[in-house]
Amino acid sequence: MTNFMEYTQALAPKTKRIALVAHDHMKDTLTQWCLKHKANLAKQTLCATGTTGQRIKKATGLEVAPLLSGPMGGDQQIGAKIAEQTLDILIFFWDPLASMPHDPDVKALLRIAAVWNIAVACNPTSADYLITSSLVNTSYDYRVPDYSAYAAGRE
Q: Chain centroid to CA 108: how far?
């Protein structure tokens, strides 16, 4: 059995699958960001946790697939989508100055995004850079863990 992860290649589709998440103090900021980038976001497939998704949909008219509220399981739903390789980008506006009762959920979500090597933006500036990248509207080949090799090595 090996002690390291092997990797393989994955292909993110031309139309990116984007999760939108925001903590309470950042929901308005994310909604305003979505309004600013509405034209580009309209070309993508969007999902969002609870109230965040409702606010974005109401303010922008964008089609946003609803998930549960973050603390009620929405963060885990997004984590599962990342692990299943059905999400390409995580836009997660969190408030670094607020205490977070569901901090373990936040850490787990950011960890799984790093494990599966998807693009993550945690604030408006990084999200601006990400959504305006030429890679957003093209297919993109990237490295992911080779879970089949990992599972075979554990047997």
A: 12
